Amino acid sequence: PQTVTRDDEGRLTVGGLDVVGIAREFGTAAYVLDEEDFRARARAFRDDFAEPFAGLGGVDVYYAGKAFLCTEVARWVADEGLCLDVCSGGELAVAQRAGFPAQRIGLHGNNKSVAEIRQALAYGVGRIVVDSFEEIERIAAVAAELGVRAPVMVRVTVGVEAHTHEFIATAHEDQKFGFSLAGGRAAEAVARILEHADTLELLGLHSHIGSQIFDTSGFEVSARRLIGLHADVARVHGVHMPELDLGGGYGIAYTSEHEPLSPRRLGEQMADLVTRELKAVGDGGPGTPAPKVSIEPGRAIAGPSTFTLYEVGTVKDVDLGGGAKRTYVSVDGGMSDNIRTALYDADYSCTLASRRSEGAPRLARVVGKHCESGDIVVMDEYLPDDVTAGDLLAVPGTGAYCRSMASQYNHTPRPPVVAVRDGKARVIVRRETVEDLLALDVG
Ligand code: LLP
């Protein structure tokens, strides 16, 4: 985060507070969230990313709540003027609790229940991204029941899948989301929606090509394909859809190997590629307004805002044979608060946070307290060789997909989220307790 530094004692500080005090007050493991960092990133997408689109139809930024959502965060997102992408009735309930403006909410999901559709339409969300033919009928039926016209977008499988710096075109039709372009399904979905004009309002097309992406070439292919369909729909049906959603996926630096583009550079590149593709099909030309573009960054806003604070419990040297050794540093959390290392081989780093050390760097593996050997938080990190029980470690970049994917494995209560701002810390998600867990047991 932006406001993380070291004080004179070598203690990590965030938002003017040192981690030793934070750990004393809130315990460990804890997610420590720098509120100003989160807000600044949200604003950077709203302003810097959006600026190059001024000559086009503008940009709406939907923060993807799946990265991390709680009532306070929903309020910050609303405050900063962003829209919100939710993908379940539960995420929508958080938005409702926060009083998030309904018009600025989009609902996703490949298998929304009738109850979720009803919850969304009754609240008056600004759009529902449609994912299947069954769902078109379901949304139309619920809209009729409620006497509303449901604003919808069509999720298009553009045949592009991108992760990190690579992308693969055409090979990724074989997945569960959306309507494929290849089989003409997306065009069929558009036609079906237009037949339901009394209950469904077609806003536009949507795509999402992946996550943790560092270059925009995959977006160029997806934009080309979406814009091609956009132009076909105008030709065939005489309907000019007002919106084009290119999804989320912008990468962040988990380690020094990653070099993410700034929101401004991303905005410039995305605006350029959308302009090029619109020109190529003669869409958005004189007389036809360019569609408004929307994006759905989750990780790029939430990820860097947070570090996880752990206390070291044990330090163990293991002989690997041939004189080689590995040091295992066990912390008071693990795969229950960060499943990403085990699930995706994700790279994290780690730093001694509670003091200065003159110790020599020693290669360590930071592991959790759970009952399996895959319970690894940081695969390889050089930590001072005097790291010992009672030291605090910080793992940065845990603001996205860590708390939101946390579990209570081994009946481990999930850590709190502590938000820090202007020298003050407050709990925005409280620590779970064993009583919380036991409360679910019946009998
Ligand atoms: N929009 C849609 C339709 C999505 O499916 C996603 C993420 C996003 C936006 C936000 O993507 P972001 O900007 O955060 O990359 N659990 C995985 C990531 C799964 C992402 C799923 N969809 C992880 O921990 O890396």
From TrEMBL:
<dbReference type="InterPro" id="IPR022653">
    <property type="entry name" value="De-COase2_pyr-phos_BS"/>
</dbReference>
<feature type="binding site">
    <location>
        <position position="249"/>
    </location>
    <ligand>
        <name>pyridoxal 5'-phosphate</name>
    </ligand>
</feature>
<feature type="domain" description="Orn/DAP/Arg decarboxylase 2 C-terminal">
    <location>
        <begin position="306"/>
        <end position="399"/>
    </location>
</feature>
<dbReference type="InterPro" id="IPR022643">
    <property type="entry name" value="De-COase2_C"/>
</dbReference>
<feature type="binding site">
    <location>
        <position position="372"/>
    </location>
    <ligand>
        <name>substrate</name>
    </ligand>
</feature>
<comment type="function">
    <text>Specifically catalyzes the decarboxylation of meso-diaminopimelate (meso-DAP) to L-lysine.</text>
</comment>
<keyword id="KW-0457">Lysine biosynthesis</keyword>
<dbReference type="InterPro" id="IPR002986">
    <property type="entry name" value="DAP_deCOOHase_LysA"/>
</dbReference>
<comment type="subunit">
    <text>Homodimer.</text>
</comment>
<comment type="similarity">
    <text>Belongs to the Orn/Lys/Arg decarboxylase class-II family. LysA subfamily.</text>
</comment>
<keyword id="KW-0456">Lyase</keyword>
<feature type="binding site">
    <location>
        <position position="401"/>
    </location>
    <ligand>
        <name>pyridoxal 5'-phosphate</name>
    </ligand>
</feature>
<dbReference type="Pfam" id="PF02784">
    <property type="entry name" value="Orn_Arg_deC_N"/>
</dbReference>
<keyword id="KW-0028">Amino-acid biosynthesis</keyword>
<feature type="binding site">
    <location>
        <position position="401"/>
    </location>
    <ligand>
        <name>substrate</name>
    </ligand>
</feature>
<feature type="domain" description="Orn/DAP/Arg decarboxylase 2 N-terminal">
    <location>
        <begin position="40"/>
        <end position="302"/>
    </location>
</feature>
<dbReference type="InterPro" id="IPR000183">
    <property type="entry name" value="Orn/DAP/Arg_de-COase"/>
</dbReference>
<keyword id="KW-0663">Pyridoxal phosphate</keyword>
<feature type="binding site">
    <location>
        <position position="340"/>
    </location>
    <ligand>
        <name>substrate</name>
    </ligand>
</feature>
<dbReference type="InterPro" id="IPR009006">
    <property type="entry name" value="Ala_racemase/Decarboxylase_C"/>
</dbReference>
<dbReference type="InterPro" id="IPR029066">
    <property type="entry name" value="PLP-binding_barrel"/>
</dbReference>
<dbReference type="InterPro" id="IPR022644">
    <property type="entry name" value="De-COase2_N"/>
</dbReference>
<feature type="binding site">
    <location>
        <position position="299"/>
    </location>
    <ligand>
        <name>substrate</name>
    </ligand>
</feature>
<protein>
    <recommendedName>
        <fullName>Diaminopimelate decarboxylase</fullName>
        <ecNumber>4.1.1.20</ecNumber>
    </recommendedName>
</protein>
<feature type="modified residue" description="N6-(pyridoxal phosphate)lysine">
    <location>
        <position position="66"/>
    </location>
</feature>
<keyword id="KW-0210">Decarboxylase</keyword>
<dbReference type="Pfam" id="PF00278">
    <property type="entry name" value="Orn_DAP_Arg_deC"/>
</dbReference>
<feature type="binding site">
    <location>
        <position position="344"/>
    </location>
    <ligand>
        <name>substrate</name>
    </ligand>
</feature>
<feature type="binding site">
    <location>
        <begin position="296"/>
        <end position="299"/>
    </location>
    <ligand>
        <name>pyridoxal 5'-phosphate</name>
    </ligand>
</feature>
<comment type="pathway">
    <text>Amino-acid biosynthesis; L-lysine biosynthesis via DAP pathway; L-lysine from DL-2,6-diaminopimelate: step 1/1.</text>
</comment>
